[in-house]
Amino acid sequence: MKFPLLLLSITPCLLSATAPEKPNILFISVDDLNDWISPLGGHPQSITPNFQRLADQSVLFTNAHCPAPACGPCRAAVLSGIPPHRSGLYENMQPLRQVMPDITLMPRHFSNHGYHSSGSGKILHYVIDPQSWDNYFPEKEKDNPFPFTHYPDKRPVSLPRGGPWQYIETDWGPLEVTDKEFGGDYTVSQWVSKQLANPPINKPFFLACGFYRPHEPWFVPSKYFKPFPLEKVQLPPGYRLNDLDDIPPAGRALARNRYFPHIQKNDEWKAGIQGYLASIHFADAMLGNVLDALDQSPRRNNTIVVLWSDHGWHLGEKEHWQKFTGWRACSRVPMMILAPGIHPGVCDQPVSTIDLFKTLASLSGVTAPENISGTDLSPLLKNPDLEWPHIALTQLRGPKAYALSGKTFRYIHYANGDEELYDISKDQYEHTNLARNKDHEEILMKLRAKAPIKGLPFPQKGQSFSVKNAPLVELDRKNKPPPSQKSFTRVPLAIKNSSSKHLRIFWINQQGQRKAFGKVATASNRIIPSHVGHTWVIETEKGGFLGYVVIPKKGARITIE
């Protein structure tokens, strides 16, 4: 029998006299989970009573996004507090310790501040990083986070191999085993439950629980498949035929990998959805095991619970299968925080899972590392309706491809300059690209100006970066502005408007097309992130051409008199 999570008053029989004053932290990650859970309403057939159970006790963030739509970059960013555009870790194949050899990850930081840090399952990308933990299961010395998991002897079971390009784990089906015989996440849930029942003496704990499902392969015990008869499985609510018609070439190229056509050709679309729903149902049951243990733990009244996913997953939306995209189906993730003294609620402000490091440090009274990015979400926990000037960044593959999520609009920028814009207040599935709609030019300019700056924390409202080494340059008023050169070297463009007129700024992309980047008001300054070799045009507000500049290797400073 399961009991609801309650924040009850502490009674003497529950806590020993040596119980720590700092709050404990239960840090739960779920792999490849999109919004197909009941608190987020992503799929009408999803069965997730335990996700709902935790959400009802938490502040549920309905507009939370991942820092990267891939396991490795996202998990490295969340655990380090350093986003990909600062670390350079953009791909799953980049080992964490090769890219950031000296970084102190979240569990070690809490250990350094008096916590006992332990964990089980997948928290980082296929490694444990032994130096970051006091204790781990499986044993941290092996640096393999996966306990034994039962899989079929003969593979593939459902989806034939389409070729060497196909990920071998893209397969699914029910297994005639019990939860215990299946192992995997069940074993993780049991180990974490034992830690909750027997917490460390005289120390608060940082306890991480990494559930692998619904990551592929979608093999789980057959009882989790039974509620989803194949003939009754519904397609994703966000799917629309010909949804790529208004998407620019870079977006179409990213969407159309070989998986979705291969799955359709083999008539496995609904079976794949069935496998994903079953795997979520299984993950929900394993979450229930941990929540039951927390209910019975001597530390339950002084424990912060955080649940998050590394990224979402496409099951045919935008003709895509897998992850790696900037669309909401992939960037939006479940995230909820339960904390002592915080009332449950729902927050629709844009946040990122990279905000968790600063937030947990703030809630626990631990000083956050000075070099990390993200925003402390404590004010939103106290007032979910608080005015919030921040946006959430999701970095794609490389420094010039990213998505920005606001409260009502989302913006996607590709490395070649292609753009997408969506009004999610009216178009939650991002069916209508507004990037070429002149009525939305102002919001486009505002979002373009928030591009991430390589090597620096994501710029917050009012922030800038140093231009002291940038030379003062003159505008070219005689020649035609050339297309921007391809470049990955970030430098600033600083514009000082000492004239009596407002200015308009345009970037010329590599195809020679003009992209509006907003205004510089009279008697004001503006700093724009740019690249070496990029071309910028400055005009008066009424369209009078003042000249252009091609950015030199140290950036540029321009004064308009």
Q: How would you describe this structure to a colleague?
A:
The protein is α/β, with parallel strands linked by helices and 561 residues long. The chain folds into 2 domains: 24-389, Alkaline Phosphatase, subunit A (3-Layer(aba) Sandwich), CATH 3.40.720.10; 490-560, von Hippel-Lindau disease tumour suppressor,  beta domain (Immunoglobulin-like), CATH 2.60.40. Helices cover 21% and strands 21% of the residues. The strands form 7 sheets. It has an 8-stranded mixed sheet with strand order 5-4-7-1-9-12-2-13, with helices on both faces. A 4-stranded antiparallel sheet has the order 15-16-17-18, covered by helices on one side. It has a 4-stranded antiparallel sheet with strand order 21-20-23-24. Helix 7 (185-197) packs parallel to helix 10 (269-295). It is globular and about 75 Å long. Mean pLDDT is 92; it is low at 1-20 and 457-465.
Quick gist of this model?
This protein is 21% helix and 21% strand. It has helices at residues 49-57, 71-80, 84-87, 96-99, 106-111, 179-182, 185-197, 249-255, 259-265, 269-295, 328-331, 356-364, 378-382, 441-448; strands at 24-30, 59-61, 64-65, 116-121, 135-137, 172-175, 205-211, 218-221, 303-309, 314-315, 321-322, 335-338, 345-347, 351-352, 392-395, 402-405, 409-413, 419-423, 490-497, 503-508, 514-520, 524-531, 535-540, 545-550, 556-560. The model is unreliable at 1-20 and 457-465 (pLDDT under 50).
